[in-house]
Amino acid sequence: MHENPAPESKYYDKTQDANIDHMKSEYLDLLDVYFSGALDEQELQSLENQLKTDARLEELFREYRDLRKGIDYSIMKTLKEDLHALEATLPEVRIKSQTGFQEEEPTIGRRFVLLKVAAALILIAVSIVVVFQLQQPSSPQELFSQYFEPYPNEFVSAKRGDDVTADPMVQAFQAYDSQNYNVAIAGFTRLLDVEENEMVLFYLGSAQLSQNQSQTAIATFERFLEISQDYRTEATWYLALSYLKENRAEAARSLLEEIKDDQKFGQETAKILRRLK
Question: How confident is the model at residue 193 (pLDDT cuts 50, 70, 90)?
Fold first, then answer.
């Protein structure tokens, strides 16, 4: 369990809040450097090890990544809900006006014009920030970090509880599904030493890229494209991401141009091409 239990004492130490805020600030600084592509290989490995053991850092990582990708629009929804909740707590307000000699007290109600204007301005501001972030040029490594996800296993059923002791392929894919990529890489490599298999080769490349072995992944996906007629768009996508990881922007751009009209990857490809420095 990653989280420490809350103190049972009724006397809560306020320094804990300060420590947590300081830790969160350090995490955000680290993630900012990570998504800017400025971490070296050793620092990347250290961060990935932390993500596996630190639940708070993993949560911040996911939130930060989603925000930078521009897909986490829940902030707008939450803001609307908060504003509506605030409106509901406001009392009715009556104003007095003078018409001739008769005093009137028309009810304005809880929905103030100024509050609605403020809400609209805030939402517009948030939208502008998100659009601005999406339009900003990004480094190749930053784009890799934002868009890479291991390809899901569609080849071998490797559910937990299966009898995998006698089947090396199922063992390798079970390790892949469990995100134990080093074990999966070793298993896939042994399988390929015995017999070349296109799909094993494809998933080997995905596992290698998951472990930041981008140079090896490039060779793997290039070999796959030489021998296979299936999954070619997928392999081209991951080969392009491998080039991004290696800061080879033009090589990545050339491959992305080939698949920019693809139904599966076209939308993400277009986003990368717009932001690629």
Answer: very high
One domain, residues 22 and 78: no
Give the span between the Cα atoms of 208 and 185, in whole angstroms: 7
3-state class (DSSP) for residue 148:
coil
Structure tokens at 40: 């070296």
| Domain co-membership, 165 together with 43 | no
Number of neighbouring beta carbons within 10 Å of residue 117: 10
In the chain, the percentage of residues whose pLDDT exceeds 70 is: 58
Print the domain residue range for 235: 144-275
Instruction: Read off the pLDDT of residues 118-173 as tens digits, 9 standing for 90 and up.
Output: 555 555 555 544 444 445 567 899 999 999 999 999 888 755 555 556 789 999 99
Has residue 208 got a pLDDT over 70? yes
Give the pLDDT confidence score for residue 223 in this predicted structure.
97
**CA torsion 131→136→140→144, rounded to 10°?**
-20
CA distance 23 to 60: 11
Domain total for the chain? 3
* Alpha helices, DSSP H, located in 103-213: 113-135, 140-147, 168-177, 181-194, 198-210
One domain, residues 56 and 24: yes
Q: In the structure encoding, which two tokens stand for residue 153, read together?
A: 């296993």
Distance CA(269)–CA(24), nearest Å, equals 32
pTM greater than 0.70: no
